[in-house]
Specification:
Elements: E1 2-6, H1 14-22, H2 33-41, H3 43-46, E2 52-53, E3 55-60, E4 63-68, E5 70-74, E6 80-84, E7 97-98, H4 103-115, E8 124-131, H5 136-146, E9 150-158, E10 161-163, H6 168-173, H7 177-191, E11 197-201, H8 208-219, H9 223-230, H10 235-248, E12 252-259, E13 262-272, E14 275-283, H11 292-306, E15 311-313, H12 320-324, E16 331-338
Parallel strand pairs: 6-8, 14-15
Antiparallel strand pairs: 1-3, 2-5, 3-4, 4-7, 5-6, 8-16, 9-16, 10-15, 11-12, 12-13, 13-14
Helix pairs in contact: 2-10, 4-5, 7-11, 8-10
């Protein structure tokens, strides 16, 4: 394989990159070229103000066969590290981009290239947010062992999801009886409250920017989320730009629950690869008597089943409500390699 180091984000690779992603060992929205370009422009919404791009591509017979979307910075332990673009806070799932048949060869040749003179001095290859099912993890362990490098992996966070049967009633029948009744009761109570209740996806290009701003306002009613965005002035604009980009690419599902004409709850999701990815949420606390978050989540699960989505992915976080809706666990991992 012929390797190349990119110290400027390679805009010209978008078509090749996303085509390879379609065939990659891990295909998630956070690895798309346009997403990581936005992420890099803001350095993760300000998470990595001192960072150098160290993106590596591999070609074979002129064809793009691998992308290691890396950057160099000082990690949380104070070590000069190579990390995956997207790390750590705002991208739920990350990985290398390579087809399964090329994975072992790509990783085996990538590590010596990273250790060569092109990337300068670094101490740790520090890879966050790989799914526990990713074949990249054992491939990295094998390649590290062949070079006598150290390899460690650890569970970082729960990342629960719901396999969907494609039928709302079948889905409800498959979860805890008490929870099934609770979902139905809260949805029925909102519908029979006498208030004007409706839910919808943002679909009008003329309204999407104002709806994204409305979502941001709801989200920041949560003190923890408001504090997170206050850490960097570019964090919220980065998320909003990502949402707009997803809308333009046809994979944004921005859902609102309105009560008496006012936005009471919202979920920002991605509808991608026949799966529904729940990225973030917001609530108007003045409508809590209607349980707006639960009610809207019920509508979204009904929609996802009726529209034959295969999976409802809550992504990172082990909040109790996810499991009460029938989610099962998986994890995201951190892999560290040391020379």
């Amino acid at each position: 394989m012929e390797f190349q180091l990119h110290t400027l984000f390679p805009d010209s690779l978008e078509l090749e990159w996303n085509d390879l992603l379609d065939r990659s060992v891990t295909h998630v929205p956070f690895l798309r070229h346009e997403y990581l370009r936005i992420w890099w422009q803001s350095r993760g919404g300000g998470e990595w103000p001192a960072a150098e791009l160290a993106l590596v591509t591999a070609r074979q017979d002129g064809q793009l066969v691998g992308v290691a979307p890396l950057f160099k910075s000082v990690n949380r332990q104070g070590k000069t590290s190579l990390l995956l673009l997207g790390s750590i806070e705002i991208s739920d799932y990350l990985d290398l981009i390579v087809a399964p048949a090329d994975l072992d060869a790509f990783v085996a040749e990538l590590l010596p290239f990273l250790a060569g003179p092109a990337l300068g001095e670094w101490q740790v290859l520090d890879l966050y947010n790989l799914l526990d099912s990713s074949p990249t993890l054992p491939a990295l362990e094998r390649a590290a062992a062949a070079l006598s490098w150290g390899f460690e992996s650890q569970k970082l966070e729960h990342s629960p999801y719901i396999p969907l049967p494609g039928d709302w009633d079948v889905y409800l029948a498959g979860i805890d009886k008490k929870q099934r009744h609770e979902i139905r009761r809260k949805m029925r109570r909102a519908e029979e409250s006498g208030a004007a209740v409706r839910w919808y996806f943002t679909s009008d290009p003329a309204l999407v920017d104002s709806d994204i701003q409305a979502f941001a306002a709801l989200m920041q009613q949560d003190t923890d989320k408001a504090a997170f965005f206050a850490r960097s002035p570019s964090m919220l604009p980065t998320m909003l730009e990502t949402a707009r980009c997803a809308f333009d690419r046809g994979c944004l599902s921005l859902a609102f629950l309105e009560i008496n004409g006012k936005k009471a709850a919202a979920y920002l999701c991605f509808d991608y690869l026949n799966r529904f990815w729940v990225y973030n949420s917001g609530l108007d606390r003045s409508f809590m008597e209607y349980s707006p978050g639960w009610v809207l989540l019920g509508y979204l699960l009904r929609w996802a089943n009726e529209n034959k989505r295969s999976e409802f992915d809550f992504m990172r976080g082990d909040e109790e409500y996810k499991y009460r809706f029938g989610a099962v666990d998986r994890f995201v991992m951190r892999a560290t390699l040391t020379r």
